[in-house]
Fold this sequence. Notes:
- By secondary structure, the chain is mainly alpha-helical.
- It has helices at residues 2-6, 27-49, 51-54, 58-78, and strands spanning 17-20, 23-26.
- A two-stranded antiparallel ribbon has the order 1-2.
- Strand 1 (17-20) and strand 2 (23-26) form a beta hairpin.
- The longest helix has 23 residues, at 27-49.
- It starts with a helix and ends with a helix.
- InterPro entries: YtcA.
Amino acid sequence: MAPFLLLGGCAVRGAPAFPLVGAYFPDWMLCAMIGIGSSLLLRALFLPVGIDAVLGFRLFTYVALGVVSGLVAWLAWFGP
């Protein structure tokens, strides 16, 4: 009985969506765009500073930075 009580937090409340310009967009799409934008912004910041030249795997680094930024935006906006 106790495991079933713990699953009470997993109740379906519907898909997370919000109206944007008259259409309901999924939240994950907005956070993905925030991650992509922040990754591009970080690349533009790293180039003049010289950090980009010392990165070993640039593509993976910027993808990881974008994923982390998107997830942080998700937690900040929709977190507990």
